[in-house]
Amino acid sequence: MAINESENKPQNRISYVYGPVTSWRSGTSLGIDPIGAISTCSFNCSYCQLGHIQNVTRERKIYVKTELIIEDLEKAYQGDQVEKVDFTKLDVITFAGSGEPTLALNLGEMIKAIKTWLKAKNLKAVPVSILTNATTLEDEEVRKDLQEADLISLKLDASDELSLKSINQAATGLSLEGIIKGIKLLKSEIDFSHLSAENESENTVHSKLKSEKNGIIQQSPNLKPELQLQIMFLPKFAENPEHIKRLAELITEIEIYKIQINTPTRAKPKSGKEYWIETRGNHYNSSPLKPQENETLDNQTESSKEKYLELPVISKEQAFKIEDDLTSLIGKIRKGEIISPKAHKRTKNEDYEQSHETTDTVKLQIINVYKR
């Protein structure tokens, strides 16, 4: 019989809830780690703040039991053995942590349990976000689990198979083609389920958008999750115009037009296969190994320098140029001024066309790690 990692947990285990951390993308974020003490991912990204991934795998299983997540949420709420978290100040609850969240077989169950727990505590409905590398999305069950979330951030660093190998060092058997296919499947299913929900609502006498229970107006749990792409740029690839062009083609094929431009601002541990749990969040803000007061990342103590490896980042000028180039290229591809071999033409039925705006009218939104 297979034994889950969670069934062999040590007496003094780590907390599967961490933070809050400050996210440039989402504000104040409380982290949820569905993977646990052994870093586990289907990627071993060259820039990963966790350091070298200990278990590179595509296996889905229960790494952390759902009840342990809720137990740690309760401890954070009560300030029991950990610093008390003010849930009223949270902007988002984010699944990330020690690896790829969608490898957790109980991901959907965890999301639903967290939302139920918030409601039971009469706390505000904090949006649940998933940071995923999108390698598991060909799996129908993964796509189903993700639709329980409110925001899904999909990694798209690579523009071809060579850059996938160089940047992300994917697990054996993964391909960019499969990743793109999975993203498109997720998007089409979310679009279809949202359309079905809208039609059901229009044909139902009692609206399902709002319900009044115990004097509280509740939002429908079936609102459409928001999708966005997150792209990590390393100088080597940022300076390659063909890489930018291929990314523009893939974005147009996927038809997700909310995009985050990022660069590895967080250092990674130097040590080989050792994993420090502190690196799950803003580790320079929370780790005991953080720089001393008034110390910048460029001027750290020797102790910090020995522990962390600073990674090359793109400059502000490069980031703005990438943003401008992507905006221009995507606009031209969508208008047909550039014929892209990857440009995707969705087959629409008549009802879909009448009920939804076409992708040509969806506004491109680029969020840059460097603010203009």
What attributes characterize this protein structure?
TIM Barrel, alpha/beta, 372 residues
Q: Name the poorly predicted regions.
A: 5-10, 202-221, 283-302, 344-358
- Shape type: globular
Sheet with most strands: 8 strands, mixed
Terminal-residue CA separation: 55 Å
Strand line-up across the major sheet? 1-2-5-6-7-10-11-14
Mean pLDDT across residues? 82
Classified by CATH, the class of one domain is Alpha Beta
Percentage of residues in helical conformation: 25-40%
CATH topology term of one domain:
TIM Barrel
Q: With helices defined by DSSP (H or I, 4 residues minimum), what is the helix count?
A: 11
Structural class: alpha/beta
Strand content: 15-25%
Work out the number of β strands: 14
**CATH architectural category of one domain:** Alpha-Beta Barrel
Helix and strand sequence: EEEEHEHEHEHHEEEHHEEHHEHHE
What gyration radius follows from the Cα positions, in whole Å?
21 Å
